[in-house]
Amino acid sequence: MAGEEETVSNKQVIFKGYVSGFPKETDMYLTTTSTKLKVPEGSKAVLVKNLYLSCDPYLRFRMSNIPSEDPEFSPFQPGSPIYGFVVAKVVDSGHPDFKKGDLVWGVNGWEEYSLITEPERLFKIPHTDVPLSYYTGLLGMPGVTAYFGLTDICSPKEGERVYVSAASGAVGQLVGQFAKWMGCYVVGSAGSKQKVELLKNKFGFDEAFNYKEEHDWNAALKRYFPEGIDIYYENVGGKMLDAVLPNMRAHGRIAACGMISQYNLQQPEGVHNLATIILKRLRIQGFIAFDYFSQYSRLLDFVVPYIREGKITYVEDITEGIENAPAALIGLFSGRNVGKQVVAIAHE
User: Fold this and answer.
1) Signal peptide position in this chain (predicted)?
2) What is the pTM of this model?
């Protein structure tokens, strides 16, 4: 165990106050406290050193004062640290299942060191022959989201036509590759020429388009899907969802993973083509990654062999330093990131 008197400074990203509209870097601030590198005597807590922070769009929900039945989506407390997914290393432990040096991932405060009183919610990292940062993405919450949203909700069949919006992000880039492995025709959309090139040349999408250059999304989808869409992996919402609905094939499936176009609107956009759901017998299902954490091993069994064989591509946008975490998070909502947005705060 670490020495009782050893104390270190601990930088934290603090949530300033509830947000209406587009969040700003100034909705968060950096402060420094101190932390003892030892768990309290008799405690079953775990003390960790956080290595990577995961910037995820769902954190925007927690910046609004909107009550939620799900604790994972409950509002942040002003004056307390931002909470999100992290990769960390155990510094000291009073819990029998964790020892010093263990690598873990899970939800934790945005700070350099954290005392975790319920470590049972953490996942131990079983494979260390891959980049640790992957546990914020490919092997973390976004990987769970992509894999189970596609396989369990959409049940793709060989030859089916799949459309992925926000396709170059942490989840979308995986959905496209997984769908290709399953024998599907895959088209993605993104918001820049660079991202479109990534989709086609790095992630192996059959086609991709820049939605900002398309003045008529309905016409664009008809061009890429002349026979219609079997599966839509929904990350955007609003006008994009409205354009997709008439282009769906009968008995199509829509996995509602995110709606990033709506998160910062004070008045969300309406969707007008809802009657299509009836006429085409569509199935739309919302879900969150937390629903599938108990089946996490399925993701590992599926994807780790592909990583080791070099058959999967995963692009990360890594920002260095906890002091830059607010800017990295806010950048998600303007599409500034290319790939999975990660903040590195320590390199073991």
Assistant:
1) none
2) 0.91
